[in-house]
TrEMBL record:
Stored PANTHER family: ALPHA-1,2 MANNOSYLTRANSFERASE KTR1
Name of the featured protein: Hexosyltransferase
Keywords in alphabetical order: Transferase
InterPro entries in the cross-refs: Glyco_trans_15 (IPR002685), Nucleotide-diphossugar_trans (IPR029044)
GO molecular function: alpha-1,2-mannosyltransferase activity
GO biological process, one term: cell wall mannoprotein biosynthetic process
Family of this protein: Belongs to the glycosyltransferase 15 family.
Length: 346
């Protein structure tokens, strides 16, 4: 298989419900349903049969593979504000393991050994509007290593030591950075680094696998234990890696300007946000992110909206296994409207 749509699915019933919405949204991808969904999961995941049925209902094939995200570090988990840990973390190391996996370990996963490309989608993300065949585009553009989503940033304790490590690495390896590493628009003294929202990303695997710079950089980052000590995020590390590699990057907005992408897509709240402090001031970061940072607002809609009515009967067992059989469960999608754009960490 030359390419996969890659998704890491957690063990909760809500993770499965979110993944079903994501699978339905893949009808927006203009690949003729030829690209299989590669579901990476831990042994505790029990929803694969349900996910396969839902994918088959919209003509999409599913391949599955186990992933080992451990082991947990022997040290206590660092104390960090809740917004830094994602909605699925309840005192464990799950979010840290996810960051570590997508930073570097994903490139050596056996399920991707024969693949040229992958498009990552989080299980709680989805498309609205047509998306071109991004894999064909990479075939036609061998100079492009990566197709990026919108910009993001992490600040202060979440990037402690990372700026110095990056600049020292570039200097010691005589590398010229094509862009600055700091995020713009913050008050003087704010320590913020730029990344990409890589919950949606398209990756040319060999660009990373054959890069001596990335091989050494991933070794240095791993040895620093910064992911587990400070929660260095894979989104920031991905952009820093591409910068150090001097890799060519395209934006989703360049190739699909009218497409809409939502993260998260499923939830009983239309809009959720986290509150945290930046330089002593309270700030709210909205958790809904749609359409390349344009003005979109979330709306509620029943989960059945995401499945063709012709298949509603065949999907009834899916809803039943999830614990709901009608549209009383609500799903967040996005439409053009008043500005509620994301201002930060997702």
């Amino acid at each position: 298989m030359a390419a996969y749509i890659l998704c890491l699915v957690g063990p909760r019933s809500l993770d499965l419900a979110e993944a079903l919405v994501m699978v339905r949204s893949l009808t927006a991808l203009d690949d003729g349903n030829r690209t299989q969904l590669l579901v990476l999961h831990e042994p505790s995941f029990r929803g694969l049969p349900v996910l396969r049925r839902a994918a088959a209902a919209v003509g999409r094939g599913v391949t599955a593979a186990l992933v080992d995200l451990g082991p947990d570090p022997p040290t206590p988990r660092p104390r960090l504000p809740p917004y830094a840990l994602g909605k699925r973390v309840e005192g464990g190391w799950s979010y840290f393991h996810m960051c570590n996996f997508f930073f570097s370990r994903v490139f050596s996963h056996p399920a991707l050994a024969a693949a040229k490309y992958f498009m990552r989608l989080d299980s709680d993300s989805c498309f609205h509007g047509r998306i071109p065949n991004v894999f064909r585009l990479l075939d036609e553009r061998p100079d492009v290593s990566y197709i990026a989503n919108d910009d993001n940033h992490d600040c202060n304790e979440l990037v402690r030591g990372l700026r110095a490590l990056t600049l020292d690495f570039a200097k010691s390896h005589n590398l010229s950075l094509r862009e600055g590493v700091g995020a713009k628009g913050f008050p003087p003294g704010a320590n913020c680094l730029r990344g990409y929202y890589n919950n949606l990303e398209v990756v040319r695997l060999d660009a990373f696998r054959r890069s001596e710079v990335f091989e050494e950089w991933s070794r240095v980052v791993t040895a620093s234990q910064g992911i587990y000590r400070h929660r260095w995020g894979d989104a920031i590390l991905r952009r820093l890696s591409l910068n150090l590699m001097n890799a060519r990057v395209l934006r989703i907005s360049q190739i699909a300007p009218d497409a809409q992408y939502c993260h998260p897509c499923f939830g009983k709240r239309e809009l959720s946000y986290t509150t945290h402090m930046v330089n002593g001031k309270k700030r709210q970061d909205y958790k809904v992110h749609c359409g390349h940072g344009r003005a979109y607002e979330p709306i509620s809609m029943g989960v059945e909206h995401f499945f063709p009515s012709a298949n509603s009967e065949s999907l009834r067992p899916v809803y039943s296994e999830l614990g709901f059989a009608n549209s009383s469960e609500r799903t967040c999608i996005c439409k053009k409207g008043k500005s509620k754009r994301s201002t930060g960490l997702i």
